[in-house]
Write a structure and sequence with these properties.
Lipocalin, eight-stranded antiparallel barrel, 1 helix, alpha+beta
Length: 123
């Protein structure tokens, strides 16, 4: 009897952890305030366990994300850019805000971080 109860508790614990993880898969869009005005950015995310891959689409085109991670309802990744022969990273950290929005902070070097919200693109 004890073994059955312990097994049921373990299954419940795994189900609870899975239920807490946010679903970041799919396409997302955001309007971001920049020194040059408002910029529309699109994200396409592919989640495999705790690993995140995908692309960031800006007016400069599509760029692969790197160092992508998922931890429950948190997401983080980098966007590597080349400008005039110089490479730099834009770091994104975010947290799910319901099923269809992510509150992001974006950091570029020593510039002040900016915050924005991305929303899921409905098919």
């Amino acid at each position: 009897m004890f073994k059955k109860l312990a097994f049921a508790l373990v299954l419940f614990a795994f189900a609870s952890v899975s239920a807490m993880a946010a679903d970041f898969n799919g396409k997302w869009t955001a309007s971001v305030e920049t020194p040059r005005g408002t910029q529309t950015i699109a994200f396409t995310f592919h989640v495999d366990g705790a690993k995140l891959t995908g692309t960031v689409t800006t007016p400069r085109g599509d760029m692969d994300i790197s160092d992508g991670k998922i931890d429950g309802d948190s997401i983080s990744f980098a966007q590597v850019m080349n400008f005039n022969g110089n490479e730099f990273k834009i770091l994104y950290t975010g947290k799910a805000d319901g099923a269809d929005s992510i509150k992001f902070t974006r950091q570029m070097g020593d510039r002040p971080a900016n915050e924005f919200t991305a929303t899921r693109v409905k098919p």
